[in-house]
Fold:
Amino acid sequence: MNRLMLNRLILLLSTASAVIGIGFLLWILTTLVFKGISSTHLSTFTHDLVNGGIRNLIVGQFTMALLATLIAVPLGVMAGIYLREYSQSPKLAATLRNLSDVMMSAPSIVIGVFVYALFVDPFGGYNGWAGSIALAIMMVPIIIGTTDNMLALVPKELREAGIALGGSKHKIILQIVLRAAKVGITTGILLSFARIIGETAPLLFTSANNQFFTMDMSGQFPSLTVSIYNLATYPDAASQDLAWAASFILTVIVLIINLGGRYLTRHKH
Amino acid sequence: MSTEALSPSNVMEAETKQKDVMRVENLTYTYPGAPKPSLHGINLPIRRNKITALIGPSGCGKSTLLRAMNRIHDLYPGNRYEGRILLSNPEETAMEDILELKKENDLIRLRQRVGMIFQKPTPFPMTIFENVAYGLKLSGMKNKSDIEERVVAALQGSAIWNETKDRLNDSAMGLSGGQQQRLCIARAVALKPEVLLFDEPTSALDPISTGAIEELISELKKEVSIAIVTHNMQQASRLSDYTAFMYIGDLIEYNKTSKIFLNPDQKLTEDYITGRFG
Structure:
């Protein structure tokens, strides 16, 4: 009898916890969707921030994130290849992996401050390049981790088969091993992109924000996330509505990228 | 008349060269970081256009020996070879010691001459055609029609042409396990190697695929000399002309397969063959 009671109690507690957790998530999402949709108009997409739209913000955010990806993908993939394929000292490899993991969990505001000291202060002010660099720094450890893990899944027999056919090590890695791990690595890159596209802290003191449409990365650069942060603190209803619209659109973008990543993983072959 | 050409040692050298495509002499091999060698002073000839089977219980060193013959061990640095592994060179009279090779390019040429098939089929993530063409391209072949000719010939020679001729541009990952293994054999055969090393090529396959692979291997010995590691005693007796029995890093007995299976010299060999241990 006691056992049955305990069983029921645990069932009740875990159900309640799940309901509370999912409840809050649904609350956030429904609020976001309702307020977001009612605040989103066609003009939101066609006007820049200065005229009450977010066109320049979306373009700016994507520009910085894409540039960050261009910087981070080669660095991260090559570092992952080094760790898994070339490193001959297990100790060094383990240390580097740990460092990369620490970097992955480094608070993003710290990365923002670091980039401020290195690429903002000495260059005379906020600029888009610094924003991209900060985002790239966030991305690199994620890409290192995925590349490393995905290469580990490629059976060593495949490498040996390539070598046994008269391949050199670098050719086998580039033409066979990387190809076998392609889907996993692409998924990782996509998910890391989804992660950084919604970051605010690394951009606060690097790119800051810009009300106007610009592609000049040497000055302050428009950012969707920083704008949400700013707009939400303004007292007027128009600004707050725009903040809701921007949040909603950002969430939809992140969701689409995440779903794309999942689709890739599921349809591997 | 040159006296040198007729000296007994030269005649013997020439005769064994004709008979042996490879000769392992006094080979001791130590894995990276291992305190003791895994092979102790192995002597073994690989006869030309014959099949030599390596048998023995798990951990006896038969795969280790096989993997020394194309120096694939060198993928993992820090190992130690002692002794010699001689490989006959079609262009020269003397055999060359493959353990002397140091440069990566020399090792690459060695592996083009001594091919290897693994236990698990290892198709590359590309099309069937590209799989077979890959080794040819690595070897520096560029002419497209030459490559195509060699690919078709290799697929035909590996008894997989009929199943693949209509789907050469499909991914090789879609083939069955047995087909994948024959594709891997075709891939190795395309390079026209002198020796093919098979490392338990059928242990991951069903009986019907195994039959097809065995048939293919006995067909291939017209073109190439073969060494095969197998756990399957019937396979060794069906396929091979010579058999070497190994036990904990030593070569216990080497002889014609019929002799090893019917009337072995060593008690240990007999015990293993008759299934008293292993």
User: Anything to note?
Assistant: Chain A has a mean pLDDT of 93. The radius of gyration of chain A is 23 Å. Chain A has two domains: 1-39, 42-266. Chain A touches chain B at residues 88, 155, 157-169, 171, 175-176, 179-180, 182, 269 (CB under 8 Å).
